[in-house]
Amino acid sequence: MKIGIVSDTKNNAVKKEVMAFVKKMGHTPVDFNKKKDILANCQELVDAYNAKKIQRGLAIDDWGIATFMFLSKHKGIVVAEINDEHSARMTTEHNNSSILTFGTCISTTHQIKNMVEKFLKAKYEGGRHKVRIDMMDTLLCKEAK
Length: 145
Known about the structure:
Strand content: 15-25%
Order of helices and strands: EHEHEHEHEHH
Largest sheet: 5 strands, parallel
Radius of gyration: 14 Å
Structural class: alpha/beta
């Protein structure tokens, strides 16, 4: 799986560690830090995801909030701001999350890697959860008009 990754400049070292971890898991990390502005890099991540150039994404900053707020405004993206391993797995299994955001002021690099591992191993279950996803998609379509 190709995994897109962005971080703010301050957390570039954490991003590099996470990229190495993703590669060790057998996936292909793709660095989207091409511009100085993390939100511009997040836009590149969204575009790559919607163009199916990557299968999942990760965003790392101090709190995980700014990237979450930006990413959640985009059609086709299901994003979750995560602080624990259980949520990293469940948001994918139940909500089909495509991108996770993390805060290094909340979680250690070790914890972030554990959450990434749960996220990348998780599979969307569909079934009874699809009803909720379909409802969100319908609401977003109405909102876009």
